[in-house]
């Protein structure tokens, strides 16, 4: 019983820290103060260390010997690589979501689109990142392609690619999301696929511009 409880506790800590990263409570490059997190979550070091080890395996944090654990800070190239993968996978998910979605799933996606819109009016960018993450992940879920969903979710590629925030204005991102939603609602697979491709491609191009600027400095 104790082993099961300990595993459940470490999973809770893992999810809590992951949520902190997603909502900007822990910023990219920030040191994770273990004593503070343990006190905040009311746990001992054992489940905390297990959670940190899992987060490191998933590349969300980096553990530096004799220095501690830090939220992973990606290079521009690493961000480009992540978005290039998303560019290949997510349009497929959008297409399949449009073809396979149920009315119930569409209502759930509409609710997340509303969350995106509401989060635009808040000063805390963590809410916008979280809303964006949930919207994209929901589309992958609605695709009912288990292999695709697991590839995207287990790798944390969406969470990691948003570590530095969105790569376009909230207004443009929301406009893209509305176009994608409309295509999925109308069961227009090709349109949903194209809108998602263009949505992510813009982020890829913005990243590449940033990479070129850094290379010149």
Q: How would you portray this structure in words?
A:
The protein is built from ten helices and three strands. With 217 residues, it is mostly helical. The radius of gyration is 18 Å and the shape is globular. The protein has helices at residues 2-22, 34-41, 45-57, 76-100, 103-119, 125-142, 146-154, 157-161, 170-185, 189-216, and strands at 31-32, 61-64, 68-71. The chain has two domains: 2-71, Orthogonal Bundle (Arc Repressor Mutant, subunit A), CATH 1.10.10.10; 76-216, Four Helix Bundle (Hemerythrin (Met), subunit A) (Up-down Bundle). Helix 4 (76-100) crosses helix 6 (125-142), helix 5 (103-119) runs antiparallel to helix 9 and helix 9 runs antiparallel to helix 10.
Q: What is the CATH topology assignment of the largest domain? A: Four Helix Bundle (Hemerythrin (Met), subunit A)
Which CATH class of the largest domain is shown?
A: Mainly Alpha
Order of helices and strands: HEHHEEHHHHHHH
CATH level-4 homologous superfamily of the largest domain: GntR ligand-binding domain-like
Structural class: mainly alpha
Terminal residue distance: 57 Å
Which ranges are low-confidence, i.e. pLDDT below 50, for 5 or more consecutive residues? none
Overall residue-averaged pLDDT value: 89
Q: What count of domains describes the coordinates?
A: 2
Shape: globular
Number of helices: 10
Strand order of the largest sheet: 1-3-2
β-strand number: 3
